[in-house]
Design a protein that fits this description.
About 85% of the residues lie in helices and about 0% in strands. It is mostly helical. The radius of gyration is 19 Å and the shape is globular. It starts with a helix and ends with a helix.
Length: about 240
């Protein structure tokens, strides 16, 4: 036991701690997720966040110490997002044929995601800056923070809303699609994936990739389109209104 305590004290003070903890926890969560038949409620990202946050609180390790190691994984998010372009390239002819409908769906979906959140928050009387912080909730967190800053929201709060939105979308998407009787053939998976990418950004896209290649490709496309459309249009719309 004394040797274990000494080892823990050493690891918790080095970058190796954050990197090792993240990899071990995620691999365990992924193993459980696979064993449970990829059940949505067993999403490995969700349970990795819960486990790591609980562990940091229980051990008293501060976030900067943890992130000094986890930043190596954080760096890989960029290449991972770029890699989503490969399944899109494989379906380029199909996407060209559907470009008009896809663009319209992205505009309507993004507007519904932002508009419903803002109207609901306004209706229940939330503070003005919180209402604005909710607007980019369906855009991936780093972009949501930048948009929030431009429109007068609270960037850190927008990041929290974005993560929560992604988690909820990844957990509830399958059940909602089944309820709406959206099929599991190729067109059905394309619709499911595009919807997840639109409403639940990167976390939803990761879930879609686990389920079906078509769903993953369209989720990645929707994620990228929402980033571009929201970054261009949302500051303009809020400036006008």
């Amino acid at each position: 036991m004394p040797r274990f305590v000494e080892l823990w004290i050493y690891l918790s003070a080095t970058p190796l701690f954050g990197l090792t903890a993240t990899l071990v926890v995620y691999l365990l969560a992924q193993g459980v997720y696979t064993r449970l038949g990829s059940a949505p409620w067993a999403n490995p990202v969700l349970w990795s966040v819960v486990a790591l946050a609980s562990g940091l609180i229980a051990t008293g390790v501060d976030y900067p110490t943890y992130f000094s190691g986890a930043q190596f994984i954080h760096f890989l998010l960029g290449p991972a997002v770029v890699a989503l372009a490969w399944p899109l390239w494989q379906r380029r002819e199909e996407l060209r044929a559907r470009f008009g409908r896809i663009l319209l769906a992205a505009l309507l979906g993004g507007s519904a995601a932002a508009g419903s959140a803002v109207l609901l928050a306004w209706a229940v009387g939330l503070p003005h800056d919180v209402v604005l912080s909710l607007a980019p909730k369906s855009v991936t967190a780093p972009v949501a923070m930048g948009i929030s800053e431009k429109i007068g929201g609270i960037p850190a709060l927008s990041a929290v809303f974005a993560v929560l939105t992604g988690m909820i979308g990844a957990l509830s998407g399958k059940y909602l699609f089944d309820l709406l009787r959206i099929g599991t053939d190729a067109p059905g998976y394309a619709a499911r994936g595009f919807s997840l990418g639109t409403a639940a950004h990167g976390i939803g896209a990761a879930r879609a990739l686990h389920v079906d290649p078509d769903a993953g490709a369209y989720a990645g496309l929707a994620l990228g389109m929402q980033v571009i459309l929201a970054a261009l249009l949302m500051p303009l719309v809020f400036r006008l209104f």
